[in-house]
Amino acid sequence: MTIDLKHFGLKDAGKIRELLLDIHAEIHPSSDDPFRARTRFAGFVDNWSALPSWSCVMGYNGGRPVGFAYGAQFSAGRWWKVVNSLMDMKMRRASLCRS
């Protein structure tokens, strides 16, 4: 099996949005998990694809899309800021436990 890869950028996001949602729905057809819901995933796609550095690679087998990966560079002050503050809290707790 040969997988052909195609790269998409920010200007393509609107064109491939429904395809991303359809592939996601095919992977999780009857999940009761609200995290896997099409509407929730659509929010992720919309959020990420609004970032200037957004990029997506889609794999095709025989001309049919079979998977994708997408992402973007974080801007200062986004998610990592929260993670770092949570890690600082955990480190302080760990230090208190050892004292």
Tell me about this structure.
A three-stranded antiparallel β-sheet has the order 1-2-3, with helices on one face. The protein has 99 residues and is an alpha+beta fold. Helix 1 packs antiparallel against helix 2. Strand 2 and strand 3 form a beta hairpin.
Topology:
Blueprint: E1 4-9, H1 13-27, H2 38-49, E2 55-61, E3 64-71, H3 79-98
Antiparallel strand pairs: 1-2, 2-3
Helix pairs in contact: 1-2
Total DSSP E strands: 3
Largest sheet: number of strands, sense, barrel closure: 3 strands, antiparallel
β-sheet strand percentage: 15-25%
The strands making up the biggest β-sheet line up spatially as 1-2-3
Short description:
This protein has 99 residues and is α+β, with helices and mostly antiparallel strands. The protein has helices at 13-27, 38-49, 79-98; strands at residues 4-9, 55-61, 64-71.
What labels describe this entry?
99 residues, alpha+beta, three-stranded antiparallel beta sheet, 3 helices, flat
